[in-house]
Amino acid sequence: MDSSTISYISFALMISTFCGTIWFIVISILHSQQAKKQQTFKSIATSYNLQLLLIGISTTGMYLVNVCCTCVPENPWIIQILEDMFVAIFESCYLMLSWGRGSSVIKFKSPKIAFVIEQAMQVFPFLCFLPVIASILGLVARLHFEEIEGSFITVEIIFSIIAGTIAVLMDAVYLIFFILFLQSLRFDSHRNHIDIDFVTITRYGICVHIAILLAFLFMALIYANPNSNVELLKLFRQTFASLVFFILFALKIALRNNAIAKEKEAELQMNEAKEALRTQNESKVVNVETAPSAKTTFTLTTKSKSPSAASIPNCKRWRSSNIDIFSDDLDQMRSNL
Hints:
Elements: H1 3-35, H2 41-44, H3 47-67, H4 76-109, H5 111-120, H6 124-127, H7 130-144, H8 149-186, H9 196-224, H10 230-290, H11 327-336
Helix pairs in contact: 1-3, 1-10, 3-4, 3-10, 4-5, 4-7, 4-8, 4-9, 4-11, 7-8, 8-9, 9-10
């Protein structure tokens, strides 16, 4: 495949990813309007939305660099800085978003490993920007210290491999725990009571992690075989990066649909419970009025409050499961959508 064809394909994918990013912004605003009476910037600019928005923008930027890589052939460091910057934004946001999405599942399966990952996440996102620093130093060396420019090329490659390895290892950990969680549901007698959001996050998470592993596989091929068609390998890498964005976007919509379905289910169960309680009270009144009485005639007035979900035995409780202890993590993620 020649360079012009790759550029055309990159441009088409860039437009589709950019349109997906715009649509994501629109959907986020609509969800905020539906969920809250008063819409504020804070209700829209949640951590999940901002991280996913940056993933969409960085993926679009990677396509843009691929299209414009021939614009400044006299100084490839400029293109390298832009590419490393967009890749670093993608990797760091993806790491933070993955932890925010999957922390509850990992805490459920292994609290000790979750603690280690939580501490590591204080540092890992910053390590993703090491290649950017190396590229900037390489540009400075090209302009003023040409004799050491080659050293910064090697440093940039090493830093890129380190950042990619961190993302791949973290991704593999999430993938393993998500698969273990789904397998545990097959043998859990209480699986019908497990919050449906956990299952949704796990299923979409597996798809995301497979896509990101494939993206870094093509990245590894670029460094393993520099004589290969680098532009084509970068196109494959960016295609899977776009797939990651769209899967995470679909996860946001799926969780929103889950919330709507649970609200409707809870409302239906509450109405059924109220109707059952009303019928029960009417039956008591009829029994009292028809009971034999010696001299005193009286009427029975029953006062009752609206039943709550906790007071109704047959009312389904969405979080009556053995993972209630991690519901705070799930609630925090819901509030960030």
